[in-house]
Amino acid sequence: MQYTKLGRTGVDVSQIILGAWQFGKQAWGEIKDDESVQTMFAAIDAGINLIDTAVGYGAGYSEAIVARTVKEASKHCMIASKVMGPPEAIRSGVDAALQRMGVDRIDLYQLHYPQPRCPIADQVGAMKEIQEAGKIRWIGVSNFDLAQLQEAVATARIESCQPPYNLFWRQFDDDVLPFCGEHEIAVIPYSPLAQGLLAGRFRKPDDVPADIRANNKLLTADVLAQCVPVIDRLEAIGKAHGKTLVQAAIAWTIQAPNITAPIVGARRAAQLEENLGGVGWSLTEEEWTEVAEAGKAISTTLDYSSNMWGWAPR
Predict the structure, then answer these.
(1) Fewer CB within 10 Å, N or C, the chain?
(2) Verdict on whether the full-model pTM lies above 0.90
(3) What CATH number should be reported for the domain holding residue 190?
(4) H or E stretch including 127?
C-alpha cells in the first residue's frame, strides 16, 4: 500500500479508503455480515487505514459493524463517519454514534450534506464544539459546493472534503477541488467507480440492478450509451498496462489534480483485491488526458441541481 498525507493533520492515509455504505445493507440488496467483516479485515491487512461510514448507512448499522471489526483487527485503522442536520442534531448525533460504535472519539467526523435551512457557520460551529469537547479528532465536509466550503473554512479548521467524483461526474473539477488544493484540505471522493459503471458491469439499462443504483443519473439509458465508448477506451488503456478496467478507473482518479485518496466500496474480499491493484501505477499523461476530456464532455451535460441519485437536502 502507498500512503499520502491527510490534509494538514500530518497523518498518513492509504491511497485507497474503504467505503462502508454497502455494509449498512439498506438500499443495497443482499449483504451478508460475514462477508462485510471479511472484506474489512482484508482491507486492513492490505494496509488500508481508514474506513468511511455514516449514520445514514443503514440507520447506524454500518457504523456499528465497522467499529466492531476495527477493534478486532490486528492493525490500526481509523474510522471516518458522517452526520447531518442542525446543531442540536449534530451534538446528539455524535453522542449516539460514540455509544453505537463503542469508542471515545471518532477520528474524522464529516457533515454529510449541508442543510439549506441552517447557516453553514452554525452547522460547522457545532462540529467545532464537539471537537473541542474531545469527541472527534478532525472535522470534514461532504457534498459542499464552493461557497459552502468557503464559509466552513472561515468557521473552523476543515481537514477533508468528500465530493462525488469519477471520470463522468466532475461537478467540482473547476472550483471545489482547486480550493482544497490551495488550502491543503484532503479530497477523499466517493463513487470513483460510479457504483459499478466503471467496473464494466453495466453496458445497457437492463444490466442495472433494482437497488439504489437504479436511481443513478449516470445509469440512465441516454447517459449510459454515451459512457460505454469511453469505458471501452479506458479498459483498453488498462489492458495495455496489464490492469483491469476497475484498476484503471481507480488509478485515473488517484492521478486527478488535488485528489488525496478515493473512497472505494467493496462487498467482498475478492472485489477489494482487484481494487487494490489501482494503487502503485499510473496512466501516461496522454492516456489520462484523453479519457479525462471524453468524460468531461459527458459530465457537462448532467443535472447537478441534485445529487447523483436525484436527491437534495431541503
Answers:
(1) C
(2) yes
(3) 3.20.20.100
(4) helix 120-132
